[in-house]
Design goal:
Elements (H helix, E strand, L loop, with lengths): L7 H28 L2 H10 L3 H19 L4 H21 L21 H18 L24
Helix pairs in contact: 1-3, 1-5, 3-4, 4-5
């Protein structure tokens, strides 16, 4: 099966997905966390691990977004994005935040139309699709990291 690096149409689809994910991770993930958005602060208060974790997660999301946009690191960016979403899902499942958090909306703000855990699940799947498209670029397991041999075929067979 051809990978996105080998097929032009798949490469275009992969790039569109990478750019969209990077935009989402910056606009919906990193910026609100790093700038102290009311909802982000409230979510991390509910998680109960302190606001320092909000900056760490925001930083991870920003790094993942940037890595998704650099050709040599886009597969690693997909893994970083997937890891961030696994952490988000874990926070919903194993902390007081819960699956359907009752977060008070900032005055004048609209409540979330979809539980955040489902959004995290969707972004996890999309991040893994990027990893699948770019799998040949992954260190150690990708085909570009496999050693090449110039040995002649065995003529004794």
């Amino acid at each position: 099966m051809k990978t996105a690096s080998q097929s032009k149409p798949l490469n275009i689809v992969a790039w569109v997905l990478q750019i969209a994910l990077a935009g989402v991770f910056i606009m919906m993930g990193a910026l609100p966390k790093l700038t102290g958005d009311y909802m982000a602060v409230q979510i991390f208060e509910e998680v109960g691990k302190g606001q320092g974790l909000r900056y760490v997660v925001g930083g991870i999301e920003l790094v993942a977004a940037v890595l998704l946009l650099i050709p040599k690191t886009r597969a690693i960016g997909g893994l970083a994005a997937a890891g961030a979403m696994v952490g988000a899902i874990g926070a919903h499942l194993f902390t007081p935040l819960g699956i359907m958090p009752e977060l008070a909306a900032e005055e004048g703000a609209t409540p979330e139309p979809m539980p955040l855990i489902f959004m995290a699940g969707a972004f996890l799947v999309l991040s893994l699709v990027v990893v699948f498209f770019r799998r040949d670029e992954l260190p150690i397991i990708g085909s570009k990291s496999a050693p090449t041999t110039n040995a002649a075929p065995d003529a004794t067979a």
